[in-house]
Design goal:
Elements: H1 4-7, E1 10-14, E2 19-23, E3 72-75, E4 89-92, E5 95-98, E6 102-108, H2 122-140, E7 147-154, E8 166-172, H3 177-193, H4 197-208, E9 212-215, E10 219-222, E11 233-237, H5 249-269, E12 276-281, E13 296-300, H6 316-319, E14 323-324, H7 328-336
Helix pairs in contact: 2-5
């Protein structure tokens, strides 16, 4: 391990976006006198009659959920994107705008209101993965849909308004900012090296043995070298696959196992239901070959030193460059010890 990376301020390159992150390991011992988050110690029931997502309950729009037994998907009652919208474009000097359409869905991971992915068995998470695959194919087959974004916000600190275990799927007519960056970086690397950016990156990580947290036959869980969030992690398939539909039945189980391993470790880290935003980045559904794409799932958790101390992206992070104090190597060791 390069000791200067643990002792001195430096920048690290995010190879997937082409952007830099400032690392300040010498600041990790500074005292904290800022805001402390409240820890929710509420014991949730397996079914909450007031929850809009629980099986059999009525949602805010008057529709009633079926008595589902595992995974349930429905179109978001308050979708950020409109399926039917006027097609328009504004090109007026420096005033630029264009219409954006799409379909937003909610995916309930389990009928059990008290659970999170960390509490679910691997076979239960595998059912979620199977639905992710189905929705990616279904939504991606629509001519106007060019990208399908699967994600989860867990915990009130991440803006989640309902504790019922659920995620979202937004599909839209253009590529988002983050996807455009990753598309460009992976494509340039593939053209110049005739190989997958993440396959080559994993090979280097395996050799370094410094940031890998967990692995099984098909997947690696690690803290990326360029991580921004304190305990950020990424799940990457060892074999290059452009999107999640290329997984075999054995591989979906292995993916579910990787999700289970890291979410359980998160909950053990500060002895709380660990909040995060997670998402899968994969090939666009734009009818191109996208052979340069290598899909991956990222977890961005905000907690810094304890269950009550949160990392804020403010000040320099908003006006300059993302910055972190604890190193990726420190974070990965902490999580690896909890697997």
């Amino acid at each position: 391990m390069r000791t200067e990376l643990q002792d001195y301020s430096h920048k690290r390159l995010n190879i997937l976006t082409g952007e830099w992150v400032l690392v300040s390991p010498h600041r990790s011992k500074r005292p904290w006198q800022g805001q402390n988050e409240k820890i929710s110690k509420e014991e949730r029931p397996s079914h909450d009659e007031n929850c809009f997502l629980c099986a059999g309950n009525e949602r805010i729009n008057g529709e009633r959920n079926p008595d589902y037994k595992d995974v349930f998907v429905f179109t978001n009652d308050f979708a950020a994107l409109q399926k039917e919208s006027k097609d328009f474009k504004l090109d007026d000097g420096l005033f630029q705008a264009q219409s954006e359409t799409g379909i937003c869905k909610v995916i309930c991971f389990s009928p059990d209101h008290s659970k999170s992915l960390a509490d679910m068995e691997v076979n239960e998470i595998n059912k979620v993965v199977k639905v992710w695959q189905k929705e990616y194919l279904k939504l991606g087959a629509i001519d106007t849909i060019k990208y399908v974004q699967i994600f989860e916000n867990k915990g009130s600190v991440m803006g989640c308004s309902n504790p019922h275990p659920h995620g979202q799927i937004w599909s839209h007519s253009t590529l988002s900012n983050e996807v455009l960056k990753k598309d460009k970086q992976q494509k340039n690397y593939y053209i110049n090296n005739n190989s997958s950016l993440l396959v080559d990156y994993l090979a280097q990580e395996i050799k370094a043995e410094e940031r890998i947290i967990y692995q099984n036959k098909d997947f690696i869980v690690l803290t990326p070298f360029w991580a921004i969030w304190p305990f950020e992690t990424m799940i990457v398939p060892k074999k290059k696959q452009s999107d999640i539909t290329h997984m075999s039945s054995n591989e979906t189980v292995a993916f579910a196992d990787a999700i289970s391993a890291i979410t359980r470790a998160y909950d053990k880290l500060f002895q709380c239901s660990f909040p995060y935003s997670s998402g899968i980045h994969q090939a666009p559904t734009n009818s191109k070959t996208n052979e340069h794409w290598h899909w991956h799932m990222s977890f961005y958790p905000p907690l810094l030193r304890s269950a009550t101390v949160k990392k804020f992206m403010v000040g320099y992070e908003m006006f300059g460059t993302p910055q972190r104090d604890i190193t990726a190597e420190f974070a990965s060791r902490k999580l690896k010890d909890l697997i």
